[in-house]
Structures
1.
Amino acid sequence: MTDPKPTDRADAAKPVRTITDLARIAGVSAGTVSRALSGNSLVNTKTREKIEAIAREHGFRPNQMASRLRRQKTGVIGVAIPLGHDVQQQISDTFFMTLLGFLADELTAKGYDLMLRRVVPSNDEDWLDRFIGSGMIDGVVVIGQSDQFERIEEVADGYLPMVVWGNHQEGQRHCVVGTDNRLGGKLAAERLIAAGATSLAFLGDTDPIEFAARFGGAKEVADKRNVPIRALPTHLSPGQVSSEIAAHLEVIQHEADGVFAATDTIAATCLQEMRTKGIVVPNHVKLVGFDDLPIASQTMPPLTTIKQDIAAGAKGLVDLLLRRMAGEDTESLVLPPHLVARQTA
């Protein structure tokens, strides 16, 4: 039998006061420890017995209030917004606030309160397990997959009452509600080309799954029509978006006469920067956004955009979550996008 590693001895010597301490010693997530100690059958017998043995060895007793809340209903739904792809983005972003408003209305109508968390996953790898294992919520809605697709998939294997706003792809295990982003990208490119654009630019970060699907759909159409398209990375954080778009316009003025913005927020900022540079929309450049947020009809000129039905999405999130809280393993809900033609393309 080999001697324990120095780090193992150091971990074992530390006092065990929380589920996180116990998870560190057991080499599992905090969520797994929480489920094991509450007798959840989703944790396999070997892992549960290992965790229980370590807990006994260290005299660990889970917080009684948390245990009581896990056994009973709290009347609270957790809402987490992971921002691994853009840590400076704020939840005051117009899209988040619009979706949260509809979501809060739906939850209130069903008798639930909402607990909101903005998460930077690089600072807390167990952010989702920790939230679920807190004992403070009955279920969780995750808004956006960010760069956390695999983490969400892992949690979905052992936790049923979770629904995610995001992009659906074949074979995924977590339940998602969202728009057919690839089809939305196709509609945007088709509109720009029909309006006379001969070269396209995409403004957005193509790392997040939803934005990648939007760009992928636009590129598919552009390639079929032999129209060049170029992605120009653009972030949503207030400190970056204006300066990035200003720099991109130097390229767009020489290389593109059609712009597909990944969101209406980016599109609205693009309109402002174009006005500053004397670029006339749609005479010089055609522009299409994505979301159909309230701001889309208020820009000058009003923004042509791809509508995703955020109100229907919020209702779908709550309906599916309540069914999953009741023990049903539901299918995902993919909503169709629609072109809203205004004056920018």
Note: The longest strand covers residues 76-82.
2.
Amino acid sequence: MNDVQFLVHSGIGRITLNRPRALNSLNHDMVLAMLERLEAWRSDPAVRAVLIDGAGDRGLCAGGDIRAIYDDARTGGTASLRFWADEYRLNALISRYPKPYLALMDGLVMGGGVGVSAHGSHRIVTERSRIGMPETGIGFVPDVGGTYLLSRAPGELGTHIALTAGSVTGPDAVHCGLADHFVPSEKVPDLLDALASRTPDTALDLFAEPAPPSGLAADAEWIDHCYAADTVEEILTRLHASGDAAATAAKEIEARSPTALKVTLRALRSAAALPDLESVLAQEFRISARALSSAEFVEGIRAQIIDKDRSPKWSPATLPEVDDKLVDAYFAGLEDAEWVAR
């Protein structure tokens, strides 16, 4: 059975991620197949729009194949660098695709799943959607253009999402600019049927509804105040002084990798000033390459995914121990590995 399936019907080129037992996590072969097929569909008159969804009923995609990355990192390999290079090229291609690209972001959409969906032209969520960039919880930093998207969310909502490594609802995703349309899950089959005879815009006009209120939007006042600080330490100080919800966020952040937190905050601030997705992806590749060789990443995956003891031993263990020199290293140029968006 193919890990990713392709079908053209009634002018719709459909991509279905097909690893339901692994929550449709992406591997390198899937990324390469998607790149090849999207390039072919660019000039195919039989394809007027593209739709991506996930097999099973749990979600679109839970991210990259983290176990493969773990094995690669432990042995000092470079396979993950090749995977990321092609994955980021796929993200960039999706963002500038010349035909409508519809992403059905139903259920879980995490990490790499965001990369193959949230850069599309028509991003659809439901009441079942749970979307997130959980990287700081495994000693990593939001990638696949995540820092581009989150740095452009209203106020400091993206900073909150990135540092807590939490997930957001469909309405939150619409409010934050991670999605465009809210369609109740019971109407999704009708939407898919309508796409056979209508343009994506007219089909969505029939079935999309105003998104319910965003919980994140309701919390924007304390989020914007706390996360506007220049350092993670000051963010935590403000959170602890800003009420129960903010204090809960602080406790979530304090469980994350101190190194990943500081690198993430700088990456977000830098991404906000970069001109386009490609330049942000280039920055993310430098960070990812550095993370691959770090003990933090291996330890984070071990604690959360492999042994599942949920007790990572971060090193450095505290925020004050993470100095500017260490953070700087994540942004340094690469001599032996290169990623160029073309």
Note: The chain has a mean pLDDT of 95.
3.
Amino acid sequence: MKTFNIHFFENRKIYFGISITVMLIGLLFNILFGTQLDIQFKGGAEIKYSFDGKVVQEEVEKIVQDTTKKDVSVRILEDVKSADGKKVKNNVSISFAGSESISVDTQQAIEKALSAKYPNAHFEVVSSSSVNPTMGRNFFIKCLTAVFITCVLLVLYIAFRFRKIGGMSAGVMAVLALLHDVIMVYFTFIIFRIPLNDNFIAVVLTILGYSLNDTIIIYDRIRENRRLMGPKTPYSSLVNTSINQTFTRSLFTAGCTFSSIATVFVVGQLYGITSVTTFALPMMVGVVTGCYSSVCIAGPLYVMWQNHKAKQRETEAKA
């Protein structure tokens, strides 16, 4: 297997600059468009209707608002296909914020108003659901708590396993790289206007495990090379060598994983399965950033921390 000779530590400013630029773009989108929460997190009600032909999203939104006297959010999904590949009716999803559920009479009133505007659309209720805002908020907090506990356990695990090469610092730098991945996934939801729902938590937890696995392999090679290259080898040379030795493996793993998820995304797009596409797209981004952070972020951060500690020891020894 080919071994590269890339100076990852020396090029760290380039890698950090790329990440910071992408984050600033995501932050700009966040400021301009805000964060959309699905009703699973913010609470509210959602009704989904099927229909034939074409409808205008703005018109549907106005009709529903005039009928219910409530603020609504409307999404239209066209060319939805069934599992056997046959085209079925298009769908329009209507979301209501608040704590009140939508009664059957209100659903029928909405259907009647839409049918009056679009008599040939044949609107029919597909599904209806509601979530109490308190329950949604509690669910969101529990999900964030799960992510926090996962990060703490990862630090402790890496600190114990790699205690011979500065385990705690290795763990902290690895988690910083993981937070980089989480932020990138979050901004993917923001940029592509995907409401934050349980898919966001699922993607984050999956990427945490995927990215950490890549980072651990690099740390394992660093530990082995520390024994082979000797304790006097500079950390920059040690880490550069270790990352280059595992670079091909990281690329192949990320490429295979990305291809598999991309296939899922394409199938989801073809069949109009929103729950699949809103999971697969952030996962694709997460796989790329997970590989990138393991190779270009975690290693250089680890070297910077070790060099900082070495300078502190020198200063203390001179004092």
Note: Residues 274-318 form the longest helix (45 residues).
4.
Amino acid sequence: MADRPRPFDGIEELLDRLNRQIETATKSWETQLDNRSRLDLSTSGSEMQLDLADEDDEFVVTVDVPGYESDDLELRLTGETLAISGTRERTEEVGGEDETYLRRERKAQSFSRQIRLPEPVDKDAVQASVNNGILTVRLPKREPSEEAHSIDIE
């Protein structure tokens, strides 16, 4: 009776191979995510697309912000992290006082992006402008400090 084949002999080997393949795929996905998120710190997916360019003496961030006015946008620089957010509000009135609308589908919209800059920038010299739905932020790089600091040893 010992010569009978056991139906589950190959399952353990199959599960081990499957486990190794899943671990390999997971490591690959984590590496891709780490490379992508090294600069982009946004917590959720955003529809706003941006470019970060290194132009020798400054970084230039370009963001598509169609339909947003400069008053709708907020920029905040904290250390080496640039946060860009925008809110565009639309009122929804159905059959209200303004009877000129036959159909009104545009609604409030907002976005938020955070991007880590590869090097420190001069926060006092940052410039931003909006032209034809494109936000351009110029961030001059900070000159490296050549001052030496003495460190006392206790």
Note: The chain is about 20% helix and 30% strand.
